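Z., the sequence and structure:
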Amino acid sequence: MCIEISIDESALIAGEVFLAYACVEGVSVRRGDPRAEEVLARAEEEARRLYSLPDLKDHPVVRALRRFYWRIGIDPTKQRPASEALARRVLRGRPLPRINNVVDAGNAVSLVTLVPIGIYDLDRISGPLTLREARRGEPFYPIGGEPEVLSEGQIVLADPEKVLHVFPYRDSTLTMVREVTERVLVVACGVEGMDKALVVDAARRTASTVVEVAGGCASEVRVAEP
C-alpha cells in the first residue's frame, strides 16, 4: 500500500498545485545499469525530436512552471525549473546526468514530458506527507547544496519530521535514493496551467520505467489535490 499525501490550503498561496504519485516496492538500485542507459538514450533522442532550444520557453508546460516560479519569488531565467534544465542540457548536445538506474528513470520521463519528477526512499519517510507552506526557520538539506533555512512563502513536501522537497524543484539528501534503497515513492508535480492527465501519465510512466530498469512492483497512481 502506498503512502498518503495531502495538500494543505497553505500550499495554494501561489495558485493551483497538485501531485500524482505511486510507490514501487522491491527495487534494486545500481549505477551504470545498461537498461537505464538505453532508457536515457531513447529519452534524449525523443527530446531532440520533440523540442527545439529557441521554442522551449513557449511550451505550455514550461510556461506554466515559469509563471509559478515568478509567483513564488524565483526568477526562472536564472534558476530553471528542473525539467526545463534537463531539456536545455540535452538540446545543447550534452547527455543527461547518469546517477543510478532509479533516478535515471525519473530524469528520462521528466525530460520527455517536461513534468518535474521526484523519487524518494520510502524507508526514510516517517509518516504521511503534506504539501504545505514552509515554516519560518525550518531546515532543508538540498542535494548538491549547503543546508539552508526556509522562510514563509516557500512550499514544501514534508513528513511529520522533515522536509523532503521544496516544491517543485529541489530534493533533500535525507530521503534521496541510495544503493541500499528498496522502496521508492515517485511524485510528479503539477501547477496551474498544466494538464492533470499529463502529470498523472508522467507519474505512471516513471513508475513503470523504474520497474523496467530496477525491478519491483508499482502501485496504482494516485492524485493529491486540494
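The two ends are 22 Å apart (CA to CA). The mean pLDDT is 96.

Let me know what you think.
H.
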